[in-house]
Amino acid sequence: MIREWFKKNEQPEDLPEYFTRYLSLFDKDKAEEVADQRFVIFDTETTGFDINEDRILSIGAVAIQNNQLKVKDHFEVYLKQNTFNPETVKIHGIIKNERFAQLPEAEALEYFIEYVGNSILVAHHAGFDKNMMNKALERNGLPRLQNKFLDTAILYKKTRIATNFIDKNKVYSLDEIAEDYNIDLTDRHTASGDAFITALIFMKLIAKIDAKNIKIRKLLRYRY
After folding, report:
1. Cα 82 from chain centroid?
2. What is the SS3 assignment for 63?
3. Which of 27, 84, 90, 155: CA 20 to 30 A from 222?
4. What average pLDDT is seen over the chain?
5. Whole-angstrom Cα distance, residue 38 to residue 136?
């Protein structure tokens, strides 16, 4: 099977080997059952919210498989800062010229792509993280992410009881959902911390999803 972007853009030999290998993983059909999937729950900390102007500062991720949070199967990387916004430091806490290892954007993307493989990606307000990652890939001459996405904010609303007392248009923050599920927020606003909190929320959500016998194919219909 040839990926759709091959038909429109580059040939496979024009891409780095790791990305060609990544694309080949999507030739296989995904399983129907939630328990059979590998989910990668991830978060990005960024210099701001402008997809075109701002940059990714760090990426944190952790995997869930067989309904278990795989704490040892985690990912964390910090990116070199060529763009710096002091106004956002009070949120993510990453200052310019931090004394920990920082990778060039291209290298960080390679490690992330190799880590996630063809897993289903999960994030809170997934559209933003997805767009930031795709913009970074574009800057480095690479195609967009091919993974399916799930958004815990949307899933949370889908699992709540539909009544007239619930605001269907409300946008739930990570803090609100975590507090509803009594999840500790100590590590909030770090990429790894937010990924772990989102993973705990997702575990609660997939328990509700399993109880309703909802197939993964139905969940993946939602677009982010």
Report:
1. 23
2. strand
3. 27
4. 83
5. 24
